[in-house]
Design a protein that fits this description.
The structure is a homodimer of 316-residue chains.
Chain A (H helix, E strand, L loop, with lengths): L2 E5 L2 H13 L5 E5 L5 E3 L2 E3 L1 H11 L16 H6 L12 H15 L4 H11 L5 E4 L6 E6 L2 E4 H7 L8 E5 L10 H7 L2 E4 L4 H10 L3 H7 L4 E4 L2 E2 L2 E2 L4 H7 L6 H8 L5 E5 L6 H6 L3 E5 L6 H23 L1
Parallel strand pairs in A: 1-2, 1-9, 2-5, 9-10, 10-13, 13-14
Antiparallel strand pairs in A: 3-4, 6-7, 6-8, 11-12
Helix pairs in contact in A: 1-2, 1-13, 4-5, 7-9
Chain lengths: 316, 316
């Protein structure tokens, strides 16, 4: 059973571990946000691609959810001697990935080819695709000015208020090779519990992807990143509030209802079922908070069963 | 008193420590071989520039004469996971230099500007100039084929016999800014005890440098890299023998007599004085083998005194 997942970084990766546990990972295709990517020190850095890949490879730093477990920071520290920016954490092992990818890109490879090279080298069996081979760069409009996403998130610790979000380059981008076909052919599509504004938003801004999902709406399931009015991970709730969006599962339903028919919400939000169904999505209720490995496996199996059951129903 | 030194890597650096000890380092201008440079993993690596800079900064690995003391190799090891070449030793701290330089070059800086940025950041007061801002690449013709220099030296451990040496790009290169003026204005010029074939040779192959030195021949002193028929450092003797050149101070005199008036030889070679003088250079005898720091200081002071004495004589 082929499944496609739309993913940001840390929040998505937990669920991806669960999905890869619940199915043959070769049949999982992950479309990853690249709006977070940045160029620094002449290197192209793709935080979400790397988080997803390192997590599925089993080498991610479990304390942070990004970077490589046990990594050191000797190069970054020495880059500081050259008065270079050191606010973006680049571990020594992690740098090998950026050096490898940047060299491939300069030699004419596409970002898709880089992502595939990295995941194969690290032994990841799931397919990992960047949302686009063209650069799309998320920019956050704040009272402090327009900030490139990592600048906002890491350097400014997501503190400035978000006035607006732009996906520079999205209008000139196209889905990476294989994305539209994977969406069209999949038995089911999962929108991971990532930040809808800056993790799933950029993916949907690539011309063609939103339409492809809408055409498969009956088979698209979103996992709600908001539980009991709070983000599962990162500044999602804060950003939604600053953008004037109610921080609730109902708002998430409002954002996804054109492309997804079902929303998985946490059991603690079960009482929101009526208002979400009124907003136009059907509801599935389970435990969505993933702390232990077992929580990830649980949610992964829940989703795989859900998509499988639906398919089985449809074919009988 | 302004002094110019022509330098390769490890052998030269010992003497440069001595020169910088014997004079105000601000008055020392070092012209460094870049024929050894290589491109790897998308990075421009300049072994001799880095050896000279790290040595004068006091951070060189004393066990090897190259690299940074206490450096680790986490990035290089991880690059191996991407099936990249790992035979060229790149330490984590050292990589910061290559990343910094490569990013500067891609942003339009010259190699001279990179070298100056690195030496200033590391607190080196002597001026360090690459021989040229244009790429010159030493190639070694061997029975195993034509090998880029580091490939020959490191990957093949200088084992293949040397049939010929080429300096690709030299004919299209020009001296880095400041070199010709530094040579013209210096009170004295020192040719360090580097390999004449592949360390000093590339510098002399940059159009204009040999002529500039010849015009100052009276003030150019070479330190003989051959002591008692053996190299002070590295494969100099082996390469000379394979090229059909006698491994002796006399041969060195033959190679340098057009551009240098004096050759400093080790006291153990004192008996060669007549034949070297017959070859057209005057001789200075001292201890040239540098093991302890004191040996470097000794030779540095010896040379500074020699050049100073000459100037004093000339003005009286």
């Amino acid at each position: 059973m082929e499944i496609v997942a739309l993913a940001g970084g840390v929040g998505a990766s937990k669920l991806l571990v669960g999905l890869a546990h619940a199915m043959a990972p070769e049949n999982l295709t992950i479309i990853v946000n690249t709006g977070d990517d940045l160029e620094m020190h002449g290197l192209t850095i793709c935080p979400d691609l790397d988080i997803v890949t390192y997590t599925l490879a089993g080498i991610v730093n479990p304390a942070t959810g990004w970077g490589i477990e046990g990594d050191t920071f000797a190069t970054l520290q020495f880059l500081g001697r050259y008065e270079r920016e050191t606010w973006f954490n680049l571990g020594d092992r992690d740098l090998a990935t950026h050096i490898h990818r940047s060299d491939m890109l300069r030699s004419g490879a596409t970002l898709s080819e880089c992502a595939d090279s990295v995941r194969r080298a690290l032994g990841v069996r799931a397919h990992i695709l960047p949302m686009s081979d063209q650069p799309v760069r998320t920019q956050i409009e704040t009272p402090a000015g327009l900030l490139p996403f990592q600048n906002y998130l890491v350097k400014h610790r997501a503190e400035p208020a978000v006035k607006a979000i732009r996906f520079d380059g999205a209008d000139r981008s196209e889905p990476a090779p294989g994305i539209l076909k994977a969406i069209a052919d999949a038995r089911g599509i999962v929108i991971c519990p990532s930040n809808p504004l800056i993790s799933i938003g950029p993916i949907l801004a690539v011309p063609g992807i939103r339409e492809a999902l809408a055409a498969r709406r009956a088979d698209v399931v979103a996992v709600c990143p908001i539980v009991h009015g709070m983000s599962l991970k990162g500044p999602t709730a804060k950003m939604m509030a600053e953008m004037g969006i109610e921080v609730s599962a109902r708002s998430i339903a409002g954002m996804y209802r054109d492309i997804a028919s079902r929303l998985v919400i946490d059991e603690s939000d079960a009482s929101s079922r009526p208002e979400i169904e009124a907003a136009g999505m059907s509801i599935e209720i389970t435990r969505t908070v993933m702390e232990a490995e077992e929580d990830k496996w649980w949610l992964g199996h829940f989703l795989v069963n859900l998509l499988h059951a639906k398919t089985t129903n449809a074919t009988h």
